[in-house]
Amino acid sequence: MPAPSRLTWPKSLTLTIPALLVTLAAAVLALPAPASAHASGVLAVTHKSPFNCGKTFYANNWTGGHNPEGSIDWQDYGGDDVNGETVRATAAGTAYFYDAGSTSYGKWVEVRHSDGTRTRYAHLASMVKAAGSSLSVSQGTAIGTVGSTGNSSAPHLHYEQRYSDGGMDTSPTVEGVTVSLGQKKAISSSNACGGSNPYTPEGVCGSGYSVIDSAGLTGGRTYLLYNSGNGYNCVVTLKTSNLGSPSAVSAFLEPQGETRTTDSGSFDYYAGPVRRDAAGQCVRWGGSVGSSSYTSGFEHCG
């Protein structure tokens, strides 16, 4: 019986195959790793605490029914009650204001950041703008106060960090502290510690207003603005000292021949806005910070 034939390879191919296998292996190793589900939305901005400088509260990333999972509930710490605290943007962006009534988030704000990511602040007692409005904010700009609106059983701040595709970051980082699922950590705020007022006259008075005059005060400045679209003037007094702490501030506006309108009280950052229809009228305007005050004559009569 003849011996079975054996398949043989040309010598040139025998030498080439190992080299091809090496080349193929190198190519596979060089392939990029698969992108994560949120690769396009990596959080590039850094976030500070949503509270006043020096305030410490618990950040509770609790699980088992928390919706959405990965959100933070900011809660009382020690003897400091979170209810009524000023809520601040944790990073710069554009804030959008919403009101879900007695359901879901209640009064809430979404800040969309420069890298496409966003943060949410929910169950607010109050917001600095009406629902449906928007506002350009800096890191530290006040956007509301802590409450218990919507589907909430007790005062707290519901806080989320979301990727640009809308997905949740379930281990958000604030003040350099990462709070992973199931963790509860006390975090102190360094937000709004820089000594500058995070508000602007235009931001307080609203869209369409431009500054036409101002007067310096000890500890602040009072501004007169005008909206050419509707003929209204607006006055606001911004503090430059004792920022974030309530102190006496006022702003007033008086169209000639009419009564004066004044906003005064103990405020963290500003008094006003005081708006009046004054098209074609002279106005007297001014304000105060503590004992320092300014009152104009009747002017700006256009």
UniProtKB/TrEMBL annotation:
GO terms for molecular function: metalloendopeptidase activity. Residues 1-39 form the signal peptide. It comes from Nonomuraea rhodomycinica. The keyword Signal applies. Residues 83-165 form the M23ase beta-sheet core domain. CDD domains: M23_peptidase (cd12797). This is M23 family metallopeptidase. The lineage of its organism: Bacteria, Bacillati, Actinomycetota, Actinomycetes, Streptosporangiales. PANTHER family: MUREIN HYDROLASE ACTIVATOR ENVC, PEPTIDASE-RELATED. Pfam families: Peptidase_M23. Keywords: Signal. The keyword Transit peptide does not apply. It comes from the Bacteria.
